[in-house]
Design brief:
This protein is α+β, with helices and mostly antiparallel strands. Helices cover 24% and strands 39% of the residues. Helix 1 runs antiparallel to helix 4. The protein is globular. The two termini are 19 Å apart.
Length: 218
């Protein structure tokens, strides 16, 4: 039997699904990735014995998105006991000066969570932070009495990543360095923010479907 309400209902679900899909464009959530290649050792976080207190990679965020997680390749310094720890932070880009003021603390980490071998660890911010499309940032670690080591890489395949090449620098206490010297092994993940026009399309579609239902059922 011909059931108009059933047809309108199925059509409504299809239109809403398409509108939602258009509201969330097909963009990669991973906006920076200097991991996955051959390691070149790493730098100790300690300002006294290593390259700290700030070790960070510069990256250019391609689109408006919410920071969802940061992954870093870390280990405890060989032969060292666990220190106090460090923080994982997102920094403003201060140009030639490297990282500026911290924008958000992603995590506070104890050295006791580290092992003697490198391990890719994931850190998730406790609050949402919006990254602006086309804006450059630094992401990395800030020493707090830590004996951790942050891995870096000279792997040509990693250096050839478009997102790594676009960042073009990393930072330690020697200043801003070229990525050809080996970026820190860091990955940044975001969740895209829907465009306002897509939300408007979704609302318009829902309103039109409501009008159709009233017209056909009147």
């Amino acid at each position: 039997m011909f059931n108009l309400n059933h047809i309108i209902g199925r059509f409504s679900a299809l239109v809403i699904a398409l509108a939602i899909a258009s509201a969330y464009p097909a963009q990669a959530d991973m906006v920076y990735n200097a991991t996955g290649g051959a390691e070149n050792g790493g730098d100790p976080l300690s300002a006294a014995t290593g390259a700290g207190p700030v070790l960070a990679d510069r990256f250019v965020n391609p689109f408006d998105g919410t920071l969802t997680s940061v992954e870093l390749n870390l280990r405890l310094s060989p032969g060292a006991s666990a220190g106090q720890g460090f923080t994982v932070d997102l920094f403003a880009d201060a140009g030639a000066a490297g990282p500026g003021a911290p924008l958000v603390q992603i995590a506070s980490v104890l050295d006791t969570s580290l092992t003697s071998g490198f391990s890719l660890m994931t850190f998730t911010p406790g609050t949402d932070f919006l990254l602006t499309g086309g804006q450059s940032y630094y992401v990395g670690v800030l020493d707090n009495g830590s004996n951790a080591v942050l891995g870096n890489t000279l792997d040509p395949a990693v250096l050839a990543h478009p997102d790594v090449a676009a960042g073009a620098s990393y930072f330690n206490n020697g200043g801003v360095q070229a990525n050809s010297g080996g970026p820190y092994e860091i990955r940044v993940n975001t969740s895209p923010v829907p465009e306002p026009s897509s939300f408007a399309l979704l609302l318009t579609g829902i309103g039109a479907l409501g009008t159709m239902r009233r017209r056909f059922t009147a």
